[in-house]
Amino acid sequence: MKNGRLNFAVIGCGALAQGQHIPNIANSPKTVLHTCCDLSDESLKICKDKFGALNIAKDWKAVISNPEIDAICLATTEKLRLPVIELAAQYKKPVYVEKPLATTLEEVYRIQNVVNESGIPFCVGHNRRSSPAMIEAHRIFRSQMDAPKHPAWRWNREPDRPVRSDDGIASMNVRINDDWYSWKSWVFDKTQAPHGPMLFEMTHFTDLCNWFMASAPVEVFAMETGMLNHAIIIKYAGGEIATLNMCGNGSFGYPKELYEMMGNGSVVVCDHMCEIRTAGIPDAPQVIKFPFINDKHPGVGTCGGINGWLEKKAAACHDAEAQGNQLLQFTAEPDKGHLHALNNFADQINCLHDDVCGVNDAVMATRVAFAAIKSAGENRVVKISEV
Fold first, then answer.
1. Spans of the chain, pLDDT less than 70
2. What is the model's pLDDT at position 192?
3. Treating both helix axes as pointing N-terminal to C-terminal, what angle do 82-90 and 105-118 enclose, rounded to 10 degrees?
4. Rounded to 5 degrees, what angle do the CA atoms 15, 368, 207 make?
5. pTM score, two decimals?
6. What is the C-alpha to C-alpha distance for residues 22 and 54, in angstroms, rounded to an integer?
7. Hey, how many other C-beta atoms are within 10 angstroms of the C-beta on 182?
8. Where in the chain is the domain with CATH 3.40.50.720?
9. What is the DSSP letter of 319?
10. Cα 220 to Cα 217: distance, rounded to the nearest angstrom
11. Closest C-alpha to 31, from 66, 61, 73, 64
12. DSSP bridge pairs for 167
């Protein structure tokens, strides 16, 4: 630990690590980018020259055993997750690992056992749990579910209506808009991603459904057309139902993620993690807007929220077309929680924060994804107990 900051080693320094974890670790007041470990000389040079890594290495075993290293950020492919976590556990080193945990349930359960038996601080990169917008949407919704309040204007047509056991039970809709033209070739390589986005993307959203519904998932039904379109229904022990529609034939000209939670006469909507809308909750604001990241068009869309994002996006797409540079389309991204997750995990290591996203929650999200994979393949409802 240097000046009270945790010395992190990043193992696996590819595009995701360079886009999020490495700069976040380098810039956080709670962490130090002590070592970057990768087999690529080019990646290591970038880590040192661009991000200021104090050390670079190729031997991950030596990195983990280095007594100067306080914690590990693991961003390799799933092929090199279990061995790294096992060795880190032996050295009692905390681990932040990208999702999904593994590509087989056998490895998922082995990782779970290693982490639980060792007791090391552990965080899985379901970063949306740490997005400011998602945290606030979750707080508002769970408060309404746990202690419901109803506005005076709620229409009670027949006060003597029959009692219903499913009265107030929560439900959730998730819509994911993606454009597969942006995907990298490894996505289509069965040796790298044997289950496609039904695993490597879906765990983000199954985790959020579990978090918002606050109940144990019991069964799943899924349908798919190839690897681009998926529809999934999750039923929970308390009767809650979540539906997920993930489409890879969409457009980056439109917001990617929409979450709609309903229950106890209320609605909470989190739109693209930049705006929350509520209805039916007396003490909740109708609209809450959140700041953007990397806003290259601060003079456009000054109204903020989802309408502001759409205006900024239109301006960015115009710039990209006019200048012949497709990358210019990216501007004013929502805060998906990457930096917050890292900082919260640093606090967790120092016993200042609860689990950010622990191994047991991550394993359950992964089990739901595997149940969906099995359901789509066999065209039937699959119980979570089967996986």
1. 1-3
2. 83
3. 10
4. 55
5. 0.95
6. 12
7. 9
8. 6-120
9. H
10. 8
11. 73
12. none
Q: How many CB atoms lie within 10 A of CB 251?
A: 12
- What value, to the nearest 5°, has the Cα angle with vertex 326 and ends 316 and 125? 85
Q: What pLDDT, on a 0 to 100 scale, did the predictor assign at position 2? A: 59
Helices (H) and strands (E) in the chain, counts: 12, 15
The single-letter DSSP state of residue 250 is -
Residue type for position 19:
G
What is the token pair recorded at 232?
């999934």
CA-to-CA separations, 2 to 47, 340, 343, 360, in angstroms, rounded:
19, 21, 16, 31
| Residue 69, pLDDT score | 98
Distance CA 234, CA 382 (A): 10
Domain spanning 129-153+162-290+366-386: CATH superfamily: Dihydrodipicolinate Reductase; domain 2 (3.30.360.10)
The pLDDT of residue 186: 85
Give dist(CA 263, CA 281) in Å, integer. 11
Could you give the CA distance from residue 72 to residue 384 in angstroms, rounded to a whole number?
A: 31
* Cα dihedral 177/181/185/188 (nearest 10): 60
Q: Which CATH superfamily is domain 6-120 in?
A: NAD(P)-binding Rossmann-like Domain (3.40.50.720)
